[in-house]
Write a structure and sequence with these properties.
Elements (H helix, E strand, L loop, with lengths): L1 E8 L4 H9 L3 E14 L5 H4 L2 E7 L2 E7 L9 E9 L3 H10 L3 E15 L2 E8 L3 E9 L7 H11 L11 H8 L11
Antiparallel strand pairs: 1-5, 1-8, 2-3, 2-6, 3-4, 4-5, 6-7, 7-8
Length: 185
Amino acid sequence: MLEIELKARVPDLGPIRERLSLMDAVPEGRIHERDIYYNAPHRDFARTDEALRIRFAGSTCVLTYKGAKRKEFALKAREELNCGVESGEVMDRILLSMGFTRVAEVRKWREYFRFRGAVISLDEVADLGTFIEIELMDPGGVEAPSDYVAGLAQVLGVLEEPILSSYLELLLDARGNRRADSNPD
């Protein structure tokens, strides 16, 4: 499934939350997410611009593959494939047994909203700060999906420059280490 995303660092999530409420966005809850990212033994995901992660969110666990960013969109766009897993701990052991290595862990509190066909996430990311993400999943019926997502940002008062990097990339940059095969632990 194709994901089009606008991510921006924002100084305060409060005004965006208020605007979402006034515009009848549908709140879907706040949850702590813990994402563990991996690198493959057969290729370096930092070089191929791919990502593989296990996300622990409440009582659920999801394995996600993200393909390389697609250049034909003005915003961050990439293929995303998700699969629920019964046990994140067992999936972690399987990946490590197959030669995958842990790269880093991203921890965040995320508040979800549905708004005009998009998923809005208000994020408090450990060691990075506060962000908004506006995601349009599988935008097949939307003409000019990048413009649509950028328009939603404007409606919500988000004027900050879009960030094309992932939270993993931002975290590794903050640590001074962009190599995907390194283990920060």
